[in-house]
Amino acid sequence: MSQQTILITGAGSGFGKVIALELARAGHIVYASMRDLGGHSEERVTELRAVADEEKIALRPVELDVRSEESARVAVDLILSREGRIDVVMNNAAMMMHGLTEAFRPEQIAEIIDLNAISWVRVNRAALPAMRRAGRGLLLYIGSGINRLPDPFTGPYAASKAAGDVLAEVMGLEVARYGIETVIVQPGAYTSGTNHFKNAVSPIDAEVVSQYDRLAGLAGELAERLDRTNLPDRRHDVGEVAEAVRDIVAMTPGTRPRRVDIDPQGRNVCRINDVTAELQRDYFRRLGVEDLLQPGVEGAGSSSIR
């Protein structure tokens, strides 16, 4: 496929960073966005620029705070002024919360839903007008299989990913007639290569935590338990997610699956996706809006990497 202009949110670490490098090395123009380039993200920016210079790849850090609609608009306008188009928007920026759901204050849950779901709307609102005018584009999302099969102690995170998933799904239906495709990538749990578990936010209501003596210590064992469920023939590194995204971008428009399940634990989320897609096609056919599953008949289907 020809060179694409790609915006990635949360590209300073984890999935975002690895995917940004993979796509730039594949020959695309990649705007690796993060917040506070001259402060919080300064070291990350310096590292990415050094790699770009050394490897002579088009990897360009750009300021974007996904919690700000104005910041999203400024970043998109900058890219459009330089490149004349945005072909792919990848919503990736996210945070993790881990612990007893009851012990999280409502404002904590509101915070993670804002970052992990509402931010997708902010970024899309900035980019979609240009994509609609162009009559083409790809909205890519780093979702999660967890909203299909949630683990204990992941309530706020799973809820935020479920909210983002529905927003991505419905927006995908609404932009399909403008030639804009939607792909939701659903990685399983990666306990290394990302900072999700390391930087996970804990519940702040210690009194509630103290009342759950029957679950004492179990929350802290989750990452280890997840590792024990890893399939023995899998790599278990975030590079396989980056490679999957690279391959999605390279696909011919109209042939991309709606969902790609990357399944190191063998959750078989793809089976849920397939049943849901079949029911959706049947219902939309009766509703008379089956064309919203386009572009491409494959648009409502799913793919699995296991």
TrEMBL record:
<dbReference type="Pfam" id="PF00106">
    <property type="entry name" value="adh_short"/>
</dbReference>
<dbReference type="InterPro" id="IPR020904">
    <property type="entry name" value="Sc_DH/Rdtase_CS"/>
</dbReference>
<dbReference type="InterPro" id="IPR051911">
    <property type="entry name" value="SDR_oxidoreductase"/>
</dbReference>
<protein>
    <submittedName>
        <fullName>SDR family NAD(P)-dependent oxidoreductase</fullName>
    </submittedName>
</protein>
<dbReference type="InterPro" id="IPR002347">
    <property type="entry name" value="SDR_fam"/>
</dbReference>
<dbReference type="InterPro" id="IPR036291">
    <property type="entry name" value="NAD(P)-bd_dom_sf"/>
</dbReference>
